[in-house]
Please model this.
Amino acid sequence: MAFAVEPAVSDLKSDYDREGWCKIPHRFDDDTIGLLRERIDSICSRRRPEVVYEKDGETVRAVHGCHAFDDVCAALVRHPQLVSLAEALLGGPVYVYQFKVNLKQAHEGAAWPWHQDFAFWSEEDGMPRPDAVNIAVSLDDVHEDNGPLVVIPGSHTLGLLDLPAMADKDDRNGWKQHVSADLTYTVTGSRAESLAREHGKVLITGRAGSLHAFHPSIVHSSSNNLSADRRALLLITYNAVANAPAHPMRPKFLVERDATATTPSSDGRLRLVPDASPSDS
Ligand code: SIN
Ligand code: MN
Model:
């Protein structure tokens, strides 16, 4: 199945350009999500550098770069419809800049403060422009109580906000603070509240398998997961081939060095189905 009808893609692009996010009218089916969950759970059960823990040192917070060593994740980033969507939103060839799964475990999963992803990519890696896109795949049902992603529509047009002067770019271990609950580049709570009063907020909810795209400069956050339901969110960041970072120093599992365009390739294990549900509020 393809995003066959060109007007649908151009509608998505105009929503995305205006709002800084959009819901994709397809989702991965239950078998596909089952397979992805199995792979991610197995990776998370091992101690390896790509796995990041919550402050308790035991609960897995996130896992990075799985597409480099797991064949299902590798197939996912080459999924023809995902690659063509990213190419359509960015207007040219793309490669995978980053791949991560934020686990947001039941009861234990900690918040992500308000921030803009492009602050990290531009300040730390030297990404020239925010010509990248995050494609989010929900691996669990996401509802308002298990810490959904919250975005402020339109905030991607405002440039970078509230950048601190203090980040130590020569700190080789500084990347750990970009993946923990204490982020280096945040948007202040008061700024986010005032933006939200002006622009509103959208909770990115929906059933497992749902797909959304969001812009590197959109202001977003998510709260602690106080519920009994895990909220795992898989995020693929595609970057425009012409927008490779100037000085990537963080580990390769956070910043891909090879900007060769991703070649799409179908894999029968990864199936999209139409998803018409109006899921966000
Ligand atoms: C989250 O998983 O809720 C946060 C994702 C992000 O900041 O990119
Ligand atoms: Mn983010």
Q: What stands out?
A: The domain at 6-263 is CATH 2.60.120.620 (Jelly Rolls). The first strand starts at residue 21 and ends at 28. Residues 115, 117, 220 surround manganese (II) ion (ligand 2) (CB under 6 Å). Residues 30-44 form the longest helix (15 residues).
